[in-house]
Amino acid sequence: MNRKPVPRPICDFTRRGFLRLSGLGGLAVAAPVWASSEQAAARRPNVVVLLSDDQGWGDLSVNGNTSVATPSIDSLARDGAVLERFFVCPVCSPTRAEFLTGRYHPRGGVRDVSTGGERLNLDERTIADAFKTAGYATGAFGKWHNGTQYPYHPNGRGFDEFYGFCSGHWGTYFDPPLDHNGQAVRGRGFMADDLTDHALSFIESHKGSPFFCYLPFNTPHSPMQVPDRFFAKCATLDPQPLARDPQQQDVAFTRAALAMCENIDWNVGRVLQRLSDLGLDDNTIVIYFSDNGPNSKRWNGGMKGIKGSTDEGGVRSPFLIRWPGRIPAGRRIPQIAGAIDLLPTLADLAGIALSGGKPLDGVSLKPLLAAPAGEWPDRLIFSHWNGKVSVRTQRYRLDHEKRLYDMQADPEQTSDVAAQHPEEAERLARAVARWRAEVLAGLQNLDRPFTVGYPEFPVTALPARDGVPHGAIERSANAPNCSFFKNWTGLGDSITWDVEVATAGTYEAAIDYTCPAADVGATVELSLNGSRVQGTVTDANDPPLRGAEHDRVPRKGESYVKEFKTLRLGTFTLGRGRGPLTLRALKMTGKTVMDVRALTLTLLPR
């Protein structure tokens, strides 16, 4: 293929120097510039970001796992570069926030994976904002996990197109309920395949101009579901090599996870083939990584820790990047890097200027990718979850209990060498203390209601995940993300959502519900700050739970799902402001009122 000329970058982080120095690692923290599209003088590269969910570093054949075949993902290493020490967060939503902003996730208010704690503060600018401002078409297809209600929704964070789900996990992966630009739709077939179909359509639709395509897969996160043709190969697999502690490995779970990884690889292959068919591969940057360590104890290079851990195995991710003709094929890069580096790196590669926003924690890796780096300063990369903080240098990791490990000599973290290197242990402990004081300050004191009522995005979904049950009402599963409310058995029970209405006006209220025939007739009331609307359940809707028929192993906490029906309560007038949106029963005719999956408020035109 003909090679297009490399666009001249508007700025280069390494050439122009850093805007200020950080006291948290010795590397620069750059402040971003959000340049206008008119500044783009040359054809810029397309960008495709592929992100897997709960896939460990060891779940790829390129990293030595002989029980799985991932030839398409492996090809990115053959044709591009591998960052051998790439670090993300211990769980999903923090990694996504760091990718989106180039900043450590607590700075953006991400403190949990559900019930609103997964939301990214609205004053954070995203990588999609930067690329959209530079004239790119932007699309996201998959698991978002950084906010549901607009303007936390992907369409409010720089993405022109969104198809997927905004929650942290989902209850079924076959024909699931999904979100398309804020509208409820039904997915078709296996979700990872369906997400890829939509990403391919987006790529084809924008083949003539620069695009930024983000494809965050929902797998191999549980529930462990995968089409038969992928599972058949792994159904009787004797996985080798084994986990760090073979006695703790769930072989059935591992089989399902590896089958899901092979499905991801098939879909990655479809993306790479479409880029080739369209003649776009030479001018498209493709990256692949995962959001945290593996979601079970399985082979992961002998590293300590899995998902949820701030040890190496919980935060080290595969990272592969391809840009033919610009990034040398087969390049392996040993310097440590992380999700915080992706915004400045991709912007730098695409020639997009970054300044005028909040300081970034990440740095551009372009010097490492383009050619063997000369002087590259050592740096500190911090990992945080649930109050635990560890820090990584090129050689050492200080864990959350101040144990020091020489990761070059002891990559499995078996021997604490703090006594042999007291100065290094003390230096890193002081760095952690400074990081805690600066980055974690105020994280637990966030007061953010759920947002309602934006004219540019009039439909607001308030899922059970974001509500608070009172009385006997309980969730359908301990994990809130895909739960619904059940056991509504008394007139004193209620459900509340802490909301803030942005626009005064008339709103239509609706409830996604189920109710057996024997309980039809209950009357419910929805109220907020003195405004009220009532409705009565007149139609029975008592579908069976579904999802178990596709599970390859028992699920780990996700709720099963049902086919909910919509009860339209009618309209009521809401003023601007904050308050508890309260759903309660005024009359019961049977043993229960209803099960509730979500409440929807739609701002009607004036």
What does this structure look like?
By secondary structure, this protein is α+β, with helices and mostly antiparallel strands. It has helices spanning 13-16, 71-79, 92-101, 127-133, 191-205, 228-234, 251-277, 312-315, 342-350, 366-370, 422-439; strands spanning 20-21, 28-29, 46-52, 81-87, 137-143, 161-165, 177-180, 183-186, 211-216, 284-290, 316-317, 319-322, 331-338, 381-385, 388-392, 396-398, 404-406, 450-452, 459-463, 468-470, 474-475, 485-486, 494-501, 505-514, 523-528, 531-536, 565-574, 577-587, 595-603. The protein folds into 3 domains: 14-384, Alkaline Phosphatase, subunit A (3-Layer(aba) Sandwich); 385-444, no CATH class; 450-603, Galactose-binding domain-like (Jelly Rolls, Sandwich). It contains 11 helices and 29 strands. A hairpin with a 2-residue loop joins strand 7 and strand 8. Helix 6 (228-234) packs across helix 7. The chain is globular.
